[in-house]
Amino acid sequence: MSFYDAIAANYDYIFPLRQGRVDFVKSLIPKETKAVVDLGCATGGLALSLAKEEIVVTAIDLNEAMVEDGRRRAIRGGVAVNFLVTDMCKVADLLPKQSVGGAFCFGNTLVHLPDHETITQFIGSVHSVLRPASPFVGQIVNYDKIMARRPDGLPTIDNEHIRFERDYRYGEAGDRIVFAARLTDKKSGQTSAEEVLLYPIVKEQLTASFKTAGFERIDYYSDYNCGDWSIEKTPTFFVAWK
């Protein structure tokens, strides 16, 4: 099994959907919203939760196995989600302008884009499909903290199902971080590994990207309870308002 197939098969053990995320998103969606887009949807947990609220959800991810898992779960749950296997950067080609009342990008997906310019272009595409007074909501690792302290990696995720080791290496790929991941499936005993490059965008750069794209207001938090953003915290949550 390839690394990404292993990730897909174990995704909900590695990154289970927290009710806090669902509640956070629901609290931000304008009441009149009828349609939203989930960018980097993985196995579709958030998309399925929103679809149960009779919201039309377009859910996009490049990983076919995870999208297929989401489709199966939608059928089992009797909800409709428009799952698409494609590059989230193509969102402006997939959806009409000003057609959604919310856009979401969780799971540190944003920093898999190669550079600041590409991130800015992607945020501009999201802006174009959002209706006025609608939010773009997401979460990345707090790279202000990472780049200031340069830890060896993120804490290992270890539970009864999997062990997921996450190491960082610096200085080998210009301004990008080498993310070395190792996943062990405890049921099968199989281990898979992969290295990917991450662009460690910091808060100042992210704010510049949002402003260039035309967002009116950008709020940052450290958790789903809208705690004040701090360099001492590992996550960065953002809410950008069109």
Give the overall silhouette. globular
Structural class: alpha/beta
Reading the helices and strands in chain order gives HHEHEHEHEHEHEEEEHEE
> How do the strands of the widest beta sheet line up side by side?
3-2-1-4-5-11-10
The percentage of residues in β strands lies in 25-35%
Weakly predicted, low-confidence segments: none
Chain-averaged pLDDT: 96
DSSP strand tally: 11
Q: Could you estimate the helical fraction of the residues in percent? A: 25-40%
- The end-to-end distance, rounded to whole angstroms, is 42 Å
Largest sheet: 7 strands, mixed
Number of helices: 8
Radius of gyration using CA atoms only = 17 Å
Features:
globular; single chain; alpha/beta
Notes on the structure:
By secondary structure, the protein is of the alpha/beta class. Helix content is 33%, strand content 30%. The protein has eight helices and eleven strands. The strands form two sheets. Strands 3-2-1-4-5-11-10 form a seven-stranded mixed β-sheet, with helices on both faces. Strand 6 and strand 7 form a beta hairpin. The N and C termini lie far apart (42 Å). The model has no long low-confidence stretch (mean pLDDT 96).
